[in-house]
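Please describe our next protein:
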Amino acid sequence: MAIENLQFRKAAEADINSIWKIIQQAIERRKLDGSSQWQDGYPNPETIRQDIENAHGYVLSAGENIIAYCAVLFNNEPAYDHIKGEWLTNGDFLVVHRVAVSGEVAGQGIATGLFKLVEDHAVANNIFSIKVDTNFDNVPMLKILEKLGYTYCGEVYFRGSARKAFEKVLKPG
């Protein structure tokens, strides 16, 4: 599926059911992969609702069908203030959370394409750093981050658990 034919846009309240279905599929894939990520009731429909209310939720759609979801936050992740390690930069940054791809298109490079669109979105908003974290056992996400040139910076902690933290410095325009 060519990423050029997809639309990256802010999620709307009308998208919640489609997004939640995709999140549930991703939760099940993490479980089948043997990952502990997302196996504790998070994320949930309220998380998605809050993302949308706070203008953090974004979807990737092919025509009318939503095929991926993520939360995008500007300069807003308190857990990142306490990294065991060191970020590459200390200026403005964009955070990517809750990346999930529909089971119908999983394994087709959609998450990689989603990250590229998020990077384009950051540059368009004059933000040249993307920070992201993932579970130590989320192998698909770790492979995507490696492929896209994200640098491992250390560990951050969410809900009492250590997570691998990465950053990528982007080039202007």
